[in-house]
Amino acid sequence: MSPTEAEWRSRLPRLVADYTRRWNLRLGAPFDGGSVSFAAPATTTDGTAAVLKLSWPHREADFEADALQWWDGRGAVRLLRHDRRDYALLIERCTPGVRLDEHHELAAEHRLEIATGLLAGLWQTGIPDRAPYEQVADVTAEWADLAANRMDRIGPPYDRGLVGYGIDLLRTLPATATRTVIVHGDFNPGNILSATRCPWLVIDPKPMIGDPGYDLAPLVLQVDDPFGHPDPAVVLRARFALVGSRLGEPTDRLLAWSVARCVESALWHADRSEIDDGAGEMARAAAMARLIG
């Protein structure tokens, strides 16, 4: 049985000490920002710059090592060592390691071009025989059921028609894909870092197998805030068209995936009594639904 998050946190100092000793590492101060993981810069005995990452054992972290091992540095950080039992990874360190969304000197469109180039490379690596990953269709069908249950149980003041549309998209979009890839699963600009081996490398996959269109919403919606522009509709349409053209995915399908994921996120917030945050997600879903032709 997997430990609770609290149990895992109580064990974390021992785990850090154990893997520092077992893998002969010298650790620096931990990085900020991980909610269910620990990550710190590490140096091996031969001077290799690495990162020690320890994750709370949970579903989304199950196959991170498998994806990094399969990609083998082709657009993503290299996996140097791992221990599946403790969700322990030793991975290549990105230097300088600045997140793509923090490179404000680059236009948002340029950042999207950088990111889509990386993503296209990950998708093109194929799928290994007996790949262990979950299917996008299975996961989003579960999300659809959860969202419907939460809407009925909580009754937040959200547009029921739009909620129903988003739930239907979660169930039906995967079956309309024209190709199947290993999706990154959390392809937001914070998971793209500047590096030296390559100009940019991807970190923190939550891999699944299925519709590539699943991967794009976090990138487009977080590269900057499109809703902070004077005319968000123009910006959204242009950016989804840009990433769609570079990746060979129809703009309307990418918009539909974004609607589906915003609706799911809205009901996730509602389940945590964050009704206003959910309302914000619903407003974003509505804006993108109006753009679908």
Short description:
With 293 residues, this protein is α+β, with helices and mostly antiparallel strands.
Care to describe what's here?
- The protein has helices at 5-22, 64-71, 108-123, 136-154, 160-172, 217-222, 232-247, 251-271, 275-289, and strands spanning 26-27, 37-43, 49-55, 79-83, 88-92, 181-183, 192-194, 200-202, 208-210.
- By secondary structure, it is of the alpha+beta class.
- It folds into two domains: 5-92, Phosphorylase Kinase, domain 1 (2-Layer Sandwich), CATH 3.30.200; 105-289, Aminoglycoside phosphotransferase (APH), C-terminal lobe (Aminoglycoside 3'-phosphotransferase, Chain: A, domain 2, Alpha-Beta Complex).
- A five-stranded antiparallel sheet has the order 1-2-3-5-4, sandwiched between helices.
- It is globular.
- The mean pLDDT is 97.
Furnish the topology, listing elements before pairings.
Blueprint: H1 5-22, E1 26-27, E2 37-43, E3 49-55, H2 64-71, E4 79-83, E5 88-92, H3 108-123, H4 136-154, H5 160-172, E6 181-183, E7 192-194, E8 200-202, E9 208-210, H6 217-222, H7 232-247, H8 251-271, H9 275-289
Antiparallel strand pairs: 1-2, 2-3, 3-5, 4-5, 6-9, 7-8
